[in-house]
Amino acid sequence: MTTNDLAARAHALRQQLTRYGHEYYVLDAPSVPDAEYDRLFRELQTLEQQHPQLKTADSPTLRVGGMPLPEFSQITHSVPMLSLGNAFSDMQQDDFARRHAELLQFDERIRRELAESPIRYATEPKFDGLAISLLYRDGVLVQAATRGDGITGENVTENIRTIHAIPLKLELAHPPTLLEVRGEVLMLKRDFERLNAEQLARGDKTFANPRNAAAGSLRQLDSRITAQRRLSFFAYAIAQVEGADWPLSHAGEMDWLQQLGFPVVAQDLRPVVEGAAGLAAYYESVLQRRATLPFEIDGVVYKVDSRAQQEELGFVSRAPRWAIAHKFPAEEALTLVEAIEEQVGRTGAITPVARLQPVFVGGVTVTNATLHNEDEVLRKDVRVGDTVIVRRAGDVIPEVVSVVLERRPMRPAAGGDLFSQGEEAQYPPYRLPSHCPVCGSHVVREAGEAIARCSGGLSCKAQRSQAIQHFAGRRMMDIDGLGERYIDKLVEYGYVHGVADLYRLTLDDLLQMKRRADEDEGVTPETVKAGKVASKWAENLLQAIAASRQPALARLLFALGIRHVGESTAKTLADWLGSLALIRRAPAALFAALPDIGGVVAQSLADFFAEANNEAALDALLHYVAPADEHPPSAKLGEQLDTAVLLARLAIPRLTEVRSQQLATQISGLEQLARMERRQLLLLQLPAEVVNALADWLDEAANRQALQQLAALRTEILSSLPQDTLTAHPLFDGKTFVLTGTLPTLSRDAAKALIEAAGGKVAGSVSKKTHFVVAGADAGSKLAKAQELGVAILDEASLQAMLQQTAD
DNA sequence: CTCCCTCGAGTTCT
DNA sequence: CTCGAGGGAG
């Protein structure tokens, strides 16, 4: 045969095999016997082996897998893979009425948002597998990635190619130049059972459930192993299309995907329904059919069918508002409470935990279940020795649902006479200990709080260890290799008392600590190899500690573990105030002037830095660590230092937002107020009770002094602010925009990003505070509301024009 | 004052 | 993932 003939033969074989494969794996209707398929497959394999130039990226021979990878590479999703919200509460299987009520509520919310009725919903089962993104360029599968954290996932292209149900090439004369398909990889129940039987016969470990089997199979670095596992796939969404028309509805997308050769769930399992009644009927019918389905599902999904309506609803943080998961009631099991013990958290929170007789539920063996807090234990009246119903809440976290009272161990009532039949429980109701189980300090429960806390602070070993653990965490100082176990030991043996001590650790310290820890735990005596492993570990750890010495300011702030200050608040502080020095000096009112920081968080910050121990620990830490990105306060801070704003943040009794504004107009500044006497205050045009409260407040020397300090700090900050206002766009700065309808070229997110970059804010709904409404095609109620309120209305062109008018 | 949303904190198992 | 609490909008 000539080269051309060979190429033609290879091409023909590929086409034939792809078609047979599709018939077999997707349509479940093979037209040729397996032997025939195998014969053609081997012919193509041989041909490609002998003539490597004939290999293609879409050849069915790729389905057998290739060389093992050293590791999966990371892939950034260009369209984030979001998770679905769940607006429904857990309930019993048979609680139709409550379920229906919740569906009505959900449907009503959507109708209100869209100002339309009835709403058409596309439905589908919620597969219990792994979400995957598939990228096709010019019709050829070029990349497959796991969901990961939604932003970045792992590159599993080789493994995905071995899944026969996934087309390697779209059979179209003119495929889209770009297509990103989302779907779920899973293992059918029958394939799972077969796999486990094989594993058992081979003496390999079996998988707890099909989901774990699918995950374990897909995450093989050796794709040849993946190829031997029978994985299936169902497509359920399109994330990107270029070079083809994007269907206008979800149902349309699904039909198109099916035409393109993707397996999608059978049509009768994904009806388009109307309103709450349609959703309810769908839910109940799928629940009925659940056991007979060939794959595991953990609920159903409802999606607003119209893509225009989807765009209008948009997103909240990382979940679309137009799609929602409705989970089935979780599987439940009975087990025995062997003990109730308490854990002490980083902030001293005392959490009761039920130690359970191990029980297999929802795919794993559960031995512990949190009881959250004292009230929760008492409400459920869980006691030692009780038989309880447990389940995995959201199919993840074990939870005690209720006690089976009939099975509570009893004994005859004490003091009962011969005639009384009285019995009493062997164990009394649960009581939270009055002293910390770790350090013995008093346990305090603030009025109105659900959580009791150990008052020991950092003198409590549990809190100290966990403070250090928090400090070292990935999103904080990111010290790799410093796990819980070693931190506990470092604290226990006295190598580390506070976070600064980490930076003083030597190689010897670490090796000594490890040796002692191993001895304490009866780990086998040292070998030469173990010694090498240990010193490698210690070196890596020292390197990781050294690498953490120039953190971003926000990370350092988060790492300090200040109550109520998490990742997001830490970032706000770093962005607005810029330097640790300023943050350490700032009074509560300054914190409270920042966005999303209110009185409680502000006070918590001020308290932290006012505490001498914390200041000392911070000073010690700063011998070794320096934030790498300190800068002057943000230019935006200037507006927040407005006299009226600061007055309102001082938490002066009776001085409301409105009164603060009135007061601000009558004084020249905070300095003046700080000097005013009661008789001068009486001249202010404010209600008498406000003036009195203000005067009383100023009578406290500490308050007056705090006000003076705030005034001085304000002046100082204002003079240090960058003078240029280059970031602020005059037409956008401080203005609120609302987007509605579909813009001709900009996506919703792109428009939002542009407005925010120019200093504007984008809100979800129109109110009298809205400055501009940007309306596109099919704009709905928001446009009407804007017209009603007389809010300025822009189209995309005028928005762009406004953006163009920069500082000229 | 009352929603509604976001953020913080705690948690399990592999 | 879920709960509770804090913050802000209406």
From TrEMBL:
It is an enzyme of class 6 (ligase). It catalyses: NAD(+) + (deoxyribonucleotide)n-3'-hydroxyl + 5'-phospho-(deoxyribonucleotide)m = (deoxyribonucleotide)n+m + AMP + beta-nicotinamide D-nucleotide. One of its GO terms (molecular function) is DNA binding. One of its GO terms (cellular component) is cytosol. GO terms for biological process: DNA repair; DNA replication. Gene3D superfamilies: 5' to 3' exonuclease, C-terminal subdomain, 6.20.10.30, BRCT domain, DNA ligase/mRNA capping enzyme, Helix hairpin bin, Nucleic acid-binding proteins. The active site is at residue 126. The keyword DNA damage applies. Keywords: DNA damage, DNA repair, DNA replication, Ligase, Magnesium, Manganese, Metal-binding, NAD, Zinc. Residues 727-793 form the BRCT domain. Its cofactor is Mg(2+); Mn(2+). The keyword Ligase applies. NAD(+) binds at residues 34-38, 83-84, 124, 147, 184, 303, 327. It comes from the Bacteria. Pfam families: BRCT, DNA_ligase_aden, DNA_ligase_ZBD, HHH_2, OB_DNA_ligase. Its EC number is 6.5.1.2. Zn(2+) binds at residues 436, 439, 460. InterPro entries: BRCT_dom, BRCT_dom_sf, DisA/LigA_HHH, DNA_ligase, DNA_ligase_AS, DNA_ligase_CS, DNAligase_adenylation, DNAligase_N. DNA ligase that catalyzes the formation of phosphodiester linkages between 5'-phosphoryl and 3'-hydroxyl groups in double-stranded DNA using NAD as a coenzyme and as the energy source for the reaction. It is essential for DNA replication and repair of damaged DNA. NCBIfam families: dnlj, PRK07956.1. Belongs to the NAD-dependent DNA ligase family. LigA subfamily. PANTHER family: CHROMOSOME TRANSMISSION FIDELITY FACTOR 18, DNA LIGASE. This is DNA ligase. It comes from Aquitalea magnusonii.
